[in-house]
Amino acid sequence: MNKYDMHDDVTRRKVFWLLQRLTSWSLWKAKYDAFKTFADAYEVAVKTWPPNDPEMIEADHLKEIFEILSDYDKGVAELGKGRRFVWRAGQALEEVVRKFNDLGRYFYRNPNYWERGQSAPYPPKVDALYQLMRASQFHMDYAPVEVWSDENVANLEWPSSLLDPAHYDHGFYKLDYPVFPAVLPDVPDPAGPVIRSGQTVPCDGIWEPVTIERSRIPGSIPVDAKLFRNNGCFNYFVAEVVAPSFADIDVDTFDVTLRSTHWRLLWEDTRYRDGIVPDESQYFLTHEAEPRPLTPGDVAPIRTGEICPVSGEWRTDEYGGKTIRIDRGAAMPDMLVKDNMGSLKVHWVTWRLVKVL
User: Fold this and answer.
1) What is the pTM of this model?
2) Same-domain check for residues 65 and 186
3) In a designed cystine with 247, which of 26, 153, 259, 310 is the match (CB 3.0 to 4.6 A)?
4) Cβ contacts of residue 124 below 8 Å, gap of 6+?
5) 245 and 278 housed in the same domain
6) Is residue 233 assigned to a domain?
7) Confidence class for position 192, pLDDT limits 50, 70, 90
């Protein structure tokens, strides 16, 4: 919890970027495409699974899978027009998240592997489908969804929920940790608007929980000027939802106390209202693969007189064999071999790399 500080500029930039990513049309379209791939595979599996297999998957899941696809169809189309009500309770993408969670929770209820939740790794054929389903999930992709609980507690209370890699490992499946761009966007520092927990959110966007301090020091800052101090993790809210509170837990008694806060609008989300989705490829960066070390098998044999491509130990098995060290850029040598009369004669040979230096 203390590892990630919301007063630290890099932490703030990362959380801000991640919330923009999690609410982007491109990410939800990627989720949709991946779930469609899973749905097709699951339908084929149901139709072709051996009927007497004791580890058969549940055909009844197809109804919910098709409902999720239908909700995706509606929700992604609306989001592409800048209509973010789709994350409100009972709306298309909120339904996707809720039904997906149910599907994951009850995916395979064979008592050998499930008891009020998954208790052991699934059989390989089942797990292959399960992992395919999880490939359509992004960690904390429910961040913009209207809060479900009666207590109305914020979806994000600590930046570690987004930034700690340990939170991406869910035991029987693991979600990809995001790759951040080289340059993260600045976090805006507006004057407001500011609302309080329990009030209606006026617009879609990223909101910061703050405490409001009033300066009593005369000078360059006007007397009674409002100053904002961070009071927790940024959250994404959709217009017309009720601004949530935080839940403080007593570590000794585990008692929960709701903590009200002010919320300051950092960034109003107006994306896609013109029907245009900009380039959002930055949200799907991948780690560059580490170059594989060169091995002797990667280098083709070469003949005398050719230029050495790799510094190393080279060997020829011709005329009794010989191993020599040759530097990259040098010409490969010949072999001097005595004939039956004892005279040295030059022979061209083939060299192969046996050790890279």
Assistant:
1) 0.78
2) yes
3) 153
4) none
5) yes
6) yes
7) confident
